[in-house]
Design brief:
This protein is of the alpha+beta class. The chain has a single domain, classed as NADH Oxidase (3-Layer(aba) Sandwich). It has a seven-stranded antiparallel beta sheet with strand order 1-6-5-4-7-9-8, sandwiched between helices. Strands 2-3 form a two-stranded antiparallel ribbon.
Length: 236
């Protein structure tokens, strides 16, 4: 099925798998939760490591000490993933086809100093966290991730979801390719930011999709989980 879609969505000299633009209004660019506590994040600190050194040192690190990370580090990671870097449009830290930004970013916080554990959503427009659910989610997220231990020992588990309609509005049949490309861009940004901050990071590709969507409170159709990545204090 995946290969069939790949063939179908190719661009050829005879045409492209989309029109100029979908008819109808553009889907909302941002997801905002109402009637939930919103916590402003600290100004993202400068990451002290050069890009070239971060690229050299980047590894998938699964062994964590269990110690907390700082709110400044969390702020830097979120900003590297989806932070606004050019307010006039606004554009973000990771590239997006047509600057349509179909991704949403959730953070399951286990150990962040001065922040209660629970499920949070990144409010891009304000560089803030929306508190969706309080409590220790280490057991459920670890079970959802097929009992991979670093989902339990991490300081934070990031989950990136896709809202496909935002990209389909312009690119129609090729949109799915672009959304998956973009989630890879964001994942690598988190990897490099974590490395630059002296933290470890590791992506998780195997998880129970429907259960993860349910934990986040998304429907799995209009918005669905695409990428899981843990970050913590490295044990090595």
């Amino acid at each position: 099925m995946g290969r069939a879609y790949h063939r179908w969505s190719r661009i050829t000299p005879h045409g492209v798998p989309w029109g100029r633009r979908q008819w109808g209004p553009r889907p909302p660019q941002y997801k905002l939760y109402t009637d939930v506590p919103v916590f402003p994040l600290p100004t993202p600190p400068q990451i002290p490591m050069s890009v070239s050194l971060a690229l050299e040192r980047r590894r998938s690190i699964r062994d964590y000490t269990g110690y907390p990370i700082s709110p400044d580090a969390l702020s830097a990671l979120l900003h590297a993933a989806q932070g606004i870097t050019e307010p006039s449009y606004p554009k973000r830290a990771a590239p997006s086809a047509g600057a349509l930004y179909p991704l949403e970013l959730y953070a399951i916080l286990h150990r962040v100093r001065d922040v209660e554990p629970g499920l949070y959503h990144y409010r891009v427009t304000e560089h803030a966290l929306e508190q969706l659910r309080l409590g220790d989610l280490r057991k459920p997220i670890t079970r959802i991730c097929l009992d991979q231990e670093h989902a339990h020992t991490a300081a934070v588990v990031f989950v990136i979801t896709g809202v496909f309609a935002r990209t389909e509005w312009k690119y129609e049949g090729r949109a799915y390719r672009y959304v998956l490309q973009e989630v890879g861009h964001v994942g690598e940004n988190i990897y490099l930011a974590a490395t630059g901050l002296g933290l470890g990071a590791c992506a998780i590709g195997a998880y129970f999709d429907e259960e993860l969507d349910a934990l986040l409170g998304v429907d799995g159709e209009e918005e669905t989980s695409l990428y899981v990545l843990t970050v913590g204090q490295p044990a090595i």
